[in-house]
């Protein structure tokens, strides 16, 4: 028995979002670790550097592959920026709390960030950022 079309779409989008998220997260983490190790940047600066490297991977991957949306819509880009900055704030807050305040290793902070941010980002992307464009209503 096949799942309803909306369930199949949701599962496909979640899998695609996950794959793109893993790719963007890998870029984020690798760049953050490199920035921390080789440039000796402070934890928050290293994490922000990783974020900057990963954000375009996430936007274009999810726009084109996950949600099949047009990539250059201003309203969509603006919502993506808001969603992304909220994710950044949450991720930076996790790094700050776990590494700066609690003194845990940097990789623990990164792991905490990776555990929280992707799920909330998928929900925001699906329900708000990449929502389908409503057809115009005709005046009566």
From TrEMBL:
<dbReference type="Pfam" id="PF04138">
    <property type="entry name" value="GtrA_DPMS_TM"/>
</dbReference>
<keyword id="KW-0472">Membrane</keyword>
<dbReference type="InterPro" id="IPR051401">
    <property type="entry name" value="GtrA_CellWall_Glycosyl"/>
</dbReference>
<keyword id="KW-0812">Transmembrane</keyword>
<feature type="transmembrane region" description="Helical">
    <location>
        <begin position="77"/>
        <end position="99"/>
    </location>
</feature>
<feature type="transmembrane region" description="Helical">
    <location>
        <begin position="105"/>
        <end position="130"/>
    </location>
</feature>
<dbReference type="InterPro" id="IPR007267">
    <property type="entry name" value="GtrA_DPMS_TM"/>
</dbReference>
<feature type="domain" description="GtrA/DPMS transmembrane">
    <location>
        <begin position="17"/>
        <end position="130"/>
    </location>
</feature>
<feature type="transmembrane region" description="Helical">
    <location>
        <begin position="50"/>
        <end position="70"/>
    </location>
</feature>
<protein>
    <submittedName>
        <fullName>GtrA family protein</fullName>
    </submittedName>
</protein>
<comment type="similarity">
    <text>Belongs to the GtrA family.</text>
</comment>
<keyword id="KW-1133">Transmembrane helix</keyword>
């Amino acid at each position: 028995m096949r799942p309803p079309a909306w369930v199949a779409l949701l599962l496909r989008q979640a899998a695609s979002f996950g794959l793109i998220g893993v790719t963007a997260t890998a870029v984020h983490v690798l760049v953050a670790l490199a920035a921390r190790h080789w440039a000796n940047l402070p934890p928050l600066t290293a994490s922000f550097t990783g974020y900057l490297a990963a954000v375009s991977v996430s936007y274009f991957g999810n726009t084109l592959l996950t949600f099949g949306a047009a990539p250059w819509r201003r309203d969509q880009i603006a919502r993506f920026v808001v969603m992304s900055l909220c994710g950044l704030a949450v991720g930076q807050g996790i790094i700050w709390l776990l590494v700066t305040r609690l003194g845990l290793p940097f990789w623990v902070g990164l792991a905490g960030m990776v555990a929280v941010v992707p799920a909330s980002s998928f929900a925001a992307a699906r329900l708000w950022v990449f929502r389908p464009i409503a057809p115009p209503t005709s005046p009566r």
